[in-house]
Amino acid sequence: MHGAGTRPKRIAQRATQLAIALSLTALGAASMAAQPVAVSARHVFDGQKLLENATVVVDGARITSVGALPAGFRGLRYDLGDATLMPGFIDVHAHLDWHFNSQGRLHTGGDGETPAQEAIAAAGNAYVTLMSGVTTIQSLGSTADADFRDAINRGVIPGPRVLTSLGSLSEASGTPDELRAKIRDFKARGADLIKLFASKSIRDGGGPTMTDAQLVAACGEGRAQGLRVLVHAHAAEAMKAAVKAGCDQIEHGIFATDEVLQMMVQKGTYLSPQCSLVFTNYLDNRAKYQGIGNYNDAGFASMEASLPQAIATVRKATSTPGLKVLFGTDAVAGAHGRNVEELICRVEKAGQAPLAALSSATSLAAQSMRLSDSLGTLAPRMLADLVAVPGDVTKDISSLRRVLFVMKNGTVYRNEATR
Could you tell me which of 234, 319, 317 has the C-alpha nearest to residue 271? Predict the structure, then answer.
């Protein structure tokens, strides 16, 4: 037998190595923070328009200038060459804690995983999401998100900044008064927004569920508490009811009609539709989901049949003048770190203009989250969230898969360009 005493020694050695690595990383970040940083690229998308041969200067966590390199600049320089530099991407709909367990199955809470295993999996999801260029997400549905949000904010683990609903409400959540009380409770517990389910899953047909009275109460109380209300709604009837109730954003909307899209334009309601990733991810990982809840043969058949409809809906939505269409992936287990596939589908299959797709993931997404004063645009005083990909992304949207550079709050987390 190998001696039992060697294992503690190996663990201690690994712990020491990790501590040294973290210390060196912290020292590197500290030294960078002590001086301005200039990031240059041939193509720079500032969140609204494309600039050529521009430099973004960062001091601490914020941008100080965008354009020509200031005369006499003294600091650290990153020249990314023939790359496209952009604001960090903002995914308005993800599920940070969804993961596959050690048996290769969707973790459902009753499979014997320990809290530590759950936390490690979510931290891994946060890491790969950040490395893919997504520096901000809205994670909808889990009470555990609060701990990850706070840990990321403290710098304990690397990941995108997180806004979370801490859970969700549905037709089964009670009377209008009970819904109001639950929204006040979400606010007291630190929720950043409210998530409602106003229709069935697409695997169950997507029909409407919440009553008009419930939606009016929930969205009204959300406004009263200063919280945005996002509504899961596939059916046009559910979308109409949510728009009439004054809810802020519709998730999915696969059965949207021209009528309801025009209602959304008039009301200023945001739409977060999905073009492909959520469907193809489920289909690619079918064996890991099969037999859990409505992940059955009928459910998978429904998702496969929905793919053409999803693309058609995104095409219709992005072609509707004045409609505010956002980048939201509904990333679940298997999809984390592949968020940009949604943008690629929008351009390559749904025909959205590349700059419009990029705006949906930057400036428009920040606006929808009421963060446009600090995120989504490359401009002085904005937080320094940057991502770069090779070449001109407007000519090859698939380059989003090949991230070269990621900065969040002025700290560089990825720099492939210097290798």
Answer: 317
Q: How far is the C-alpha of 87 from the C-alpha of 89, rounded, in Å?
A: 6
Give the pLDDT of residue 418: 66
Helix H or strand E segment including 150: helix 145-154
* The pair of three-digit structure tokens given for residue 180, joined into one six-digit string: 């109001």
3-state SS, residue 271: strand
Which single residue is written with the structure tokens 């190998």? 2
Beta carbons of 238 and 209 less than 8 angstroms apart:
yes
For 194-213, what is each residue's pLDDT tens digit?
999 999 999 999 999 999 99
In whole angstroms, what is the distance from residue 44 CA to residue 80 CA?
Answer: 11
Q: What is the pLDDT of residues 267-296, one digit of tens each?
A: 999 999 999 999 999 999 999 999 999 999
Side-chain-side CA neighbours of 31 within 13 Å: the count stands at 6
Q: Provide the b/e sequence for 380-399 (b: ≥16 CB within 10 Å).
A: eebbbbbbbbbbbbbebbeb
Read off the DSSP letter of residue 229.
E
Angle at the Cα of 323 from the Cα atoms of 319 and 327, rounded to 5 degrees:
85
What's the pLDDT tens digit per position in 121-159? 999 999 999 999 999 999 998 898 999 999 999 999 999
Q: Say if residues 206 and 235 touch (Cβ distance below 8 Å).
A: yes
Q: Are 370 and 352 in contact (CB under 8 A)?
A: no
Q: What separation in angstroms does the CA of 145 have from each of 105, 122, 392?
A: 21, 9, 35
Q: What percent of the chain has pLDDT over 90?
A: 88
Helix 297-318 crosses helix 341-348 at what angle (to 10 degrees)? 60
For each of the domains in the chain, give its residue range(s) and CATH number, in order of start. Answer: 35-85+378-415 (2.30.40.10), 89-368 (3.20.20.140)
Mean pLDDT of 114-125: 93
Any idea how long the chain is? 419
Mean pLDDT of 333-360: 98
Q: State pTM to two decimals.
A: 0.91
CB atoms within 10 A of CB 138: 30
Roughly how many angstroms between the first and final C-alpha of the chain, as a whole number?
A: 43
pLDDT of amino acid 29: 47
| Among candidate residues 267, 351, 277, the one with its CA nearest the CA of residue 315 | 351
